Structures are given as structure tokens and as C-alpha cells.
Amino acid sequence: MDSETKKTDAHFFRSSFVLLVTTLTAAAIHYAYQFAMGRMLGPADYGVFAALFSIIYIVHAPVQAVQLTLTKFVAEFDAKNNLGAVRNMFFSATRIIFLISLVIFFLCILLRGAIAEFLNISDSGIIFWFSFIFLGILIVAVARGVLQGMQKFKALGSNLIIEAIIKFGIGVALVLAGFRVVGALMGTNISLILAFILAFAVSYKAVKQSMGEKLNTSEKSAIYKYAVPMLIALSVVTFMYSIDVILVKHFFPPEDAGIYSAAALVAKVIFFALLPISQAMFPKIAELRIKRENYSGIFIKSVLMAAGLSAIAAAVYFMAPGFVLNLLFGSAYDAAIPLIGLFGLAISLLSISYVFINYFLATGRTMFSYVLPFFAATEAILIWLWHGSLFQVVSIITIIMGAVLLVSVANFFFIRAHLENN
After folding, report:
1. Would you tell me which of 2, 41, 191, 231 could form a disulfide with 65, CB atoms 3.0–4.6 Å apart?
2. By three-state DSSP, how is residue 384 classified?
């Protein structure tokens, strides 16, 4: 290993550590908020809150695709010192996503009755206040994509922490004041808008002096060509860890839906805790690829890190499910204990797969994205047809997540063999 490679690896792990610490801190606060809502609202109302957040995750997935697309191309333009292109991407994406946010906001308000009926929510006014979340959660991803692409991990991490603190403080205060689910939603609304203002200010400062040329036709074509499989991949992953909560809210009684939502959230701690590994790996591999430098070592280390931590987390969930659940949600959710171990395994498998998916996208090998919708559709159909118990739903998810990981690994070795033969 030459000195330049050692320097690159050292910088990668320093950056990963900064992003890991700040992201985990923010995630811990977000999860503390969810757990606080679970305890304060009780299983029935928490089932409503969790189902609405699952809708947010699914709708937000396309914008995550925009964020990672921005991350990739900002990293490449930054590597070429073409900050003018970064600036143009930033402002164009902000305008487009803002308009999309308005459309989703008004659609949600217009369809609030139908949404409430499907989710067995008696008060459609909850959906009205829920709609305002889309004015912030979509557009903040644009500014964060620029920060991530330029590897400004301290600014990105700080923004995530500030959002989490504001949401926790305002949301808990409003719930204590008696606003229940609406209060929990309003804490999220306010924190996202303030987070966008701060992230936009930092991103704008980084690119405001760069008045370079506009993106040419080939650059725009490359961005759009890349964005489509990115959109598919992230939408499918988000769909796979969210649709179950929505369907359970539709098919099961309110108390059971709340119990399941608690188990799902505890399991997803694993996914979001390991997310920084992919977030740090993605722009670094994109940068090294454009510089024609070796990036396989970073990928292998990222996979091993994710696999090792996932294995430890899954083992804890199997050996001490009651301790984990009661620590986070309290005894009111004890009925979820039988679900915790298997659910933890399912999300662990997804967490490892997500590293592979990010690797495929960062290296431009995007055809794998078109395979993923098959797994998402299969999961939804199987749950729709077979939902005799909550454990049966979790079993279906575990089988699907295992299949995704097997196909991801197979695709990696297929690509590797193809490169060696050429």
C-alpha cells in the first residue's frame, strides 16, 4: 500500500468517524423522541404516529435519491474543482424540490379523508397537520446532499443534531400540553424548516463565489441517467422497511398496530445506526472512481464493519429482547417481545445489503436497481395475502431481506468476475 493510498484511507476513516459520531448522536435524539412518544401516547395513538411516519419515509425516498445524486456529482465536480457546476446543481435542485413539496402538501390535504380512512384514523384533522411536514422534509435533503458531496461532514452532522434537538424539545412540550399526535407532528414540522434554513445557509456560503458555467447537455444527461436508478433503489429500500407498518395499521386493531410499530422501530435502530457507514463510503468511492484510484479497500472495510456490527446487534436482540424493548418503550409494549429477535435479524440483513446497494450506485453500476422492485412488490403482496399474526408479517420480511442480501452479494461477485475477464 503506497503512502497516497494510506493517506486516503486515513482521511476516509477520520471523515467516517466524524459523520458516525454526529449522525449517531442525532439518531439517538430522534429515537429518544420516538420512544418518548411511544410512552407518552400509548400503543393506540403511537400506532397512528408511526404509520404516518412510514408514509413520510416512502414519499421521502425519491428526495433521498436526489440527495445522493447530488452527493455523487457534487463530489465529482468538487474533485475537478468545478464549483460553478456545484452551485448550479444546488439552486436548480432547490427550486425543483420546493415545487414538488408544494404539490405533495396540497395533495395530502385534499386526500386527507381517504388517507385517514385507510389507516383507520378517526380524526382527518391529524392528516391536515401531518401535511405540513412535506414542506420541510423534502427540501432539506438538497442542502444536505451538497454538504455530503463536498465532504463537509462536520456541518452536515451539526445540522442533523440541531434538527433532532429542536424536534425533541418542541414535540415533547406540545404533547405534554395535550396536543397528542398533532403536537408530536408539529415538533417535526418546525425542526425540519429550521434545519433547512441552516443547511441552506452553509451550502450557499460554500458555493456563492463560484459563478462558473452552467451544466452542459452531457453533464445533465449523466445526472438524469444516474438519478433514475438511484430513485428506484432508495424508494425500494425505504418501501421495504416502511410498508409493513402501514399495512399492519390497515389490517390490525389499533393496539396491535402500536405494538408492531414499537417492534419495528426497535429493529430499525440497527439500520439507522449503521447508515453513516454508507453515507461516508458513498462520496469517497465516487471521488476515487473519478480520479481513477483504487476504492475496493474502502468498500470491503465498509461491508465488514456493517456485517460485524449487525451481527452483534442481532445477537443482542435475540438474547435479550425483553430488556431492549422495556428499556426503550416500557412494559406497555411487552406483547412485542416475541417479535424483537427476528425483526432485528431482518433489519440487519437489510443494513448489509444497503452497503452493497450504495457501492453499486457510487460506481455507476446501476442496473441492479431495476431488480429491487421485484422484492418490494413481493413483500407487499405476501403481507397483504398472509397476515394471520404479527409474527407472520415479521417472518415474511426476514425472508425477503435475506433474499435481497443474497442477490446483492451474487451481483458483486458477478461484476468482479466480469471486470477480471476484461
Report:
1. 231
2. helix
